[in-house]
């Protein structure tokens, strides 16, 4: 079975871990990772979502923070701060810096990000084929209002420095219109037996992947069922700031509204099925009204067992949809 997943960082990586537990060696899993969070810092190319996926699935993640390396030390960050070098708000750990050095060196030698990612994965063996959504530079900036002045800041600055505490008025994905899908991305969608959208941030993680010209069309064209998992349980994001960004875009913060935002392939959307939490059963009529096949199952990935069960539930819904069409 070939499974393709469109993923952001923490939520997506956790889900894919459960998916691998569920399917074992029987499946060939490709993860298309968001790269619109990427940022250049001190001359280094940092790819937060690709690294979270690679470290989580490869056993190198810090289990508490859920980003960056385990057993991390922070000498580089402290030394930079001692020089007063900006920005000081981004967590560049010493072990993590080695990843960014290798990546940057390869990029400067002329390798595209997809080749670099493949090379980094030789060490981490994440158990999936990890593909950047694009090799082209795309950066999400968030439009904020500060003392009556509108300005745009890099997504990482909005999230890490401002902690998403400032209202967002919209997001701009710089470079997205010229971006081309990374090598293998369209094929992974076209040739999949199942496509899954994990509980990732719909605005800044899955949103950019869907906005790369050609990717949404590939999702609408694939014969595979496309099933998504809500990142919203009740009226908030489980972790992170999807709620702030949704509010900024004028989308109601609910599992049903996020499903409707992705939309149904029977209309001009990208999904067939949508999982909401058992506590959100009342959302199912809204999910159906959006043209999606909905199911209410436990969505909270509290441990490896619940995460694996969630992956199994997503596959079961995909199978049901697949056999009917
Ligand atoms: P990021 O790139 O690190 O922000 O990670 P993602 O975009 O992959 O995931 C962040 C989203 O995952 C947030 O919107 C959370 O609401 C969601 N999330 C995190 N943990 C869980 C969970 O246990 N269950 C569900 N359903 N969603 C979760
Ligand atoms: Ca991210």
Detailed description of the structure:
The longest helix has 21 residues, at 304-324. The two termini are 18 Å apart. A hairpin with a 2-residue loop joins strand 3 (39-41) and strand 4 (44-46). Helix 1 packs across helix 13 and helix 2 (48-58) packs parallel to helix 5. The model has no long low-confidence stretch (mean pLDDT 95). Strands 5-2-1-9-10-13-14 form a seven-stranded parallel beta sheet, sandwiched between helices. The protein is α/β, with parallel strands linked by helices. It is 39% helix and 19% strand. It binds guanosine-5'-diphosphate (GDP) and calcium ion (CA).
List keywords for this structure.
325 residues, alpha/beta, Rossmann fold, 14 strands, globular, binds guanosine-5'-diphosphate, transferase, FbiA/CofD, CofD-like_dom_sf, EC 2.7.8.28, magnesium ion binding
């Amino acid at each position: 079975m070939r499974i393709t997943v469109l993923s952001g960082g923490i939520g997506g990586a956790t889900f894919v871990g459960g998916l691998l537990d569920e399917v074992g060696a029987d499946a060939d899993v490709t993860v298309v990772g968001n790269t619109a969070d990427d940022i250049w810092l001190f001359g280094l190319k940092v790819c937060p979502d690709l690294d979270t996926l690679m470290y989580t699935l490869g056993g190198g993640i810090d289990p508490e923070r859920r980003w960056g390396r385990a057993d991390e030390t922070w000498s580089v960050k402290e030394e930079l701060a001692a020089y007063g070098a900006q920005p000081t708000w981004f967590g560049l750990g010493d072990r993590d810096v080695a990843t960014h050095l290798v990546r940057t060196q390869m990029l400067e030698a002329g390798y595209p990000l997809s080749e670099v990612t493949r090379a980094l994965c030789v060490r981490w063996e994440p158990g999936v084929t990890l593909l950047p959504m694009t090799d082209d530079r795309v950066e999400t900036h968030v439009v904020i209002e500060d003392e009556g002045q509108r300005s745009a800041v890099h997504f990482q600055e909005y999230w890490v420095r401002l902690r998403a505490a400032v209202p967002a008025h919209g997001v701009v994905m710089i470079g997205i219109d010229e971006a081309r899908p990374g090598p293998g991305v369209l094929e992974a969608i076209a040739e999949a037996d199942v496509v899954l959208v994990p509980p990732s941030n719909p605005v800044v993680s899955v949103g950019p992947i869907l906005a790369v010209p050609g990717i949404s069309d590939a999702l609408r064209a694939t014969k595979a069922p496309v099933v998504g998992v809500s990142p919203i349980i009740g009226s908030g994001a489980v972790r992170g700031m999807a709620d702030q960004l949704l509010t900024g875009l004028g989308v109601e913060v609910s599992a049903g509204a996020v499903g409707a935002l992705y939309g149904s392939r029977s209309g001009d959307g990208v999904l067939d099925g949508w999982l909401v939490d058992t506590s959100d059963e009342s959302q199912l009529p809204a999910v159906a009204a959006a043209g999606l096949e909905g199911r209410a199952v436990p969505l909270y990935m509290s441990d490896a067992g619940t995460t694996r069960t969630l992956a199994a539930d997503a596959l079961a819904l995909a199978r049901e949809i697949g056999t009917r069409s």
